[in-house]
Amino acid sequence: MIHNPHNLSQLLKSTAKRYGFKSCGISKSGALDKDARQLEEYLKKDFHGQMHYMANHFEKRTDTTKLVEGSRSVISLLYNYYPASPIDTLDNLKISKYAYGQDYHEIIKGILREMVEELTGVVGDFSCRIFVDSAPVLERAWARESGLGWVGKNANLITRDQGSFFFLAEIITDLEIAPDGPIKDYCGTCRRCIEACPTQAIVEDKVVDGSKCISYATIELKDELPESFRGKMEEWMFGCDICQDVCPWNRFSKPHSQVLFEPSKKLTMLKKEDWKELTQEVFSEIFRKSPVKRTKFAGLKRNIEFITKNDIL
Ligand code: SF4
Ligand code: SF4
């Protein structure tokens, strides 16, 4: 059995690598006071738009010992989703790269469950909960605390060696593991993401006004798309990658090796004209297991009609 906090850290990192995670970092479980104040401000300014869930469970969201009682460590993990060949956008509408393949929630949770089972065999019984974008956890803040990267001006977690196209996941556990520390912010004087955002949604360093963001509008918003987005969508029908695509650190992105994140042949073949004729049947066929099903057929259709009617015709 391994109980030494430093040995546990090494074990976790080598195990996470074997399970396909790009990196793994450790923090001490507890309250993130500064991030809690920032979240309060964010909510006060209504930057969360209709993402009302962000205001729920405030205490648990900002203190992992309240979310997982008895927890001592937060293990943050990054899983690469950068595709080997982005879908051609020349005669096409755009979809965020994270949504090319099957829904990451279940895939990554499945990997984490197997990893925890293996670790139990080595360190003995321990208690933990796993999270993949699924509960009130300040994922980026924890990844930052554990030194996996820094939070860029575009509010994404950025790594020096491979940029920002990663899913974030956490294991919150009662194991006592030696913590890593944060690294410095390498954005420097760069402002490319702020300048490239077509809706000026990056309102200050590391703060995206969700209610102005194309990603929020095309995925989370339940109503009609606001007129303020007219002419600014740049053909994004689900999500938006602009502030990541322009980030110089993403020149270092490397293709993932998760076959379940590959887009289906049909998805890569549809063209602008086909999207305009999208039917419920085709939607269900292409997006049955995809994160795109979050918008439902009606939501994607709304987005397509909004951008094709006024932006490109
Ligand atoms: S995702 Fe798109 S709209 Fe949102 S902040 Fe980034 S560039 Fe702007
Ligand atoms: S584009 Fe520049 S400012 Fe924006 S996140 Fe990347 S490095 Fe930071």
UniProtKB/TrEMBL annotation:
The keyword Glycosyltransferase does not apply. Keywords: 4Fe-4S, Cobalamin, Cobalt, Cytoplasm, Iron, Iron-sulfur, Metal-binding, Oxidoreductase, Queuosine biosynthesis, tRNA processing. [4Fe-4S] cluster 2 binds at C197, C213, C240, C243. [4Fe-4S] cluster 1 binds at C187, C190, C193, C247. It is an enzyme of class 1 (oxidoreductase). It is found in: Cytoplasm. It comes from the Bacteria. Binds 2 [4Fe-4S] clusters per monomer. TRNA binds at K222. GO terms for molecular function: 4 iron, 4 sulfur cluster binding; cobalamin binding; epoxyqueuosine reductase activity; metal ion binding. InterPro entries: 4Fe4S_Fe-S-bd, 4Fe4S_Fe_S_CS, QueG, QueG_DUF1730. GO terms for biological process: tRNA queuosine(34) biosynthetic process. The keyword Metal-binding applies. Cob(II)alamin binds at R61, D133, N154, L157, L168, S215, C240, D241. Its main location: cytoplasm. Its EC number is 1.17.99.6. GO terms for cellular component: cytoplasm. It catalyses: epoxyqueuosine(34) in tRNA + AH2 = queuosine(34) in tRNA + A + H2O. Residues 175-207 form the 4Fe-4S ferredoxin-type domain. Monomer. Catalyzes the conversion of epoxyqueuosine (oQ) to queuosine (Q), which is a hypermodified base found in the wobble positions of tRNA(Asp), tRNA(Asn), tRNA(His) and tRNA(Tyr). This is Epoxyqueuosine reductase.
